[in-house]
Design goal:
With 405 residues, this protein is mainly beta. It contains 3 helices and 22 strands.
Length: 405
């Protein structure tokens, strides 16, 4: 039975506002799911509106008066889906959008991440003011078995199971008390492990990060997933630490029976990117404050593997940058297992990476994680790096690797 009451929400909004004033000196954090990447990680963290290339990201930016720049602020002061209600699912009537739809509530042809039933890790990046001691719980819901994703329809709670498939508590006074929640504080990450139910085709996982009485803040997001390798042709995989962005091609796709969601997708390409040669594979970015955002890239070769490797500088603010490596399988057979290498000629150092296992101090090597090991025909896998450098344009290094030669 669904328990939906607006009274607790109204009270909690008042309580949240009161507690925010009482604890004004506290450092409040913001965050979003980055492994697998939520919609606002794909389109907001990875792809800014002025450099978006994925059609859904381009359209989402056009639909948002904030231009997707509030990607980490999909929040409410509510009890969330358990005992609460909202008109919009993915943004949960976020206060940032005054209770209206966020850009990630529109049912566009969002990129998908590969998913399988069983133990899976969902990671939250809370880099935007990391704060750990008031985190209380994480909750996840999944669409019903008969769900059918429909671009242009309206996503409602009727498409989801009534009960969450995963509820995890966390107490920072005993950070190891729940082994299913790992606080990787050095990287500003929470890793949560859940048992994902059996599904087929394309589905949506809705997640919440809830904080306790200090703020009563709750953050919301939707992850688009494809079970058994089906689903969006333009889907991407994601991984720990940051976020992943997906390939330029996207597609909708299939599962049986059910209800779903809305919006149409449009295509576009990123603005003003300068290209230079040299193969590389690197990925998208977390954004940084201030500074200009420009995009430059280098393309790698594509050998018998049929993989095109591209290094794209997605944000450059003088003393630092973020970049994305895109590995696009342009062949007609899946590629399983990948590793690439690169080196900076200047004094660049890396401060953060995501969606790949990155080793070295220069040269650097990056290899796949378990969930993004396979690059299907026509699909793109990305990973990201963030670095510091001297003033000047961010370097676009040459990337080498067996799949790029």
């Amino acid at each position: 039975m669904k328990i939906r009451s607006s009274k607790p929400q109204r009270w909690l909004k008042w309580a949240g506002a009161l507690s925010a004033s009482l604890f004004a000196s506290a450092a409040f954090s913001h965050g979003l799911m980055v492994e697998p990447p939520s919609r606002n990680a794909h389109c907001g963290l990875n792809e800014k509106p002025d450099q978006a290339t994925t059609p859904a990201c381009v359209e989402a930016a056009q639909l948002d008066s904030n231009g997707m720049y509030q990607f980490m602020s999909v929040l409410t002061h509510t009890i969330g889906r358990s005992g609460g209600d909202s008109t919009n699912v993915c943004g949960y009537d976020s206060e940032t959008w005054n209770g209206g739809p966020s850009p990630w509530d529109h049912q566009l042809d969002w990129p998908t991440s590969s998913m399988s039933a069983g133990p899976q890790t969902f990671s939250w990046n809370i880099s935007w003011g990391p704060h750990w001691d008031d985190t209380e719980e994480f909750k996840y819901w999944i669409t019903r078995e008969d769900f059918v994703y429909q671009v242009g329809s309206t996503l409602t709670w009727d498409a989801f199971e009534d009960e969450p498939f995963c509820v995890l508590n966390y107490d920072d006074t005993d950070p190891d008390g729940n082994p299913a929640v790992v606080a990787e504080k050095a990287s500003n990450l929470f890793h949560t492990t859940c048992e994902v139910p059996e599904r087929e085709g394309r589905h949506i996982i809705y997640g919440e990060w809830g904080r306790n009485y200090f703020t009563y803040e709750r953050f919301h997001g939707c992850v688009d997933v494809a079970f058994d390798g089906s689903g969006s042709g333009g889907g991407s995989s994601s991984s720990s630490g940051g976020s992943s962005s997906s390939s330029s091609s996207s597609s909708s796709s299939s599962s049986s029976g059910g209800t779903s969601s809305g919006g149409s997708s449009s295509s576009s390409s990123s603005g003003g990117s300068s290209s230079s040669s040299g193969g590389s594979s690197s990925s998208s970015s977390s954004s940084s404050s201030g500074g200009s955002s420009s995009s430059s890239s280098s393309s790698g070769g594509n050998a018998g593997s049929g993989v095109q490797c591209e290094y794209v500088v997605s944000n450059d603010w003088g003393s630092g940058f973020t970049a994305e490596v895109r590995l696009t399988n342009i062949g007609d057979q899946p590629v399983t297992g990948w590793e690439v290498e690169w080196e900076y000629a200047d004094d660049t150092v890396l401060t953060n990476t995501w969606n790949a296992i990155v080793n070295g101090m220069g040269p650097f090597t990056a290899s796949n994680l378990s969930w993004n090991e396979t690059i299907g025909a026509g699909q793109t896998v990305t990973f990201g790096v963030q670095g510091e450098k001297s003033e000047g344009v961010a370097e676009v290094p040459e990337i080498t690797g067996a799949i790029c030669n």
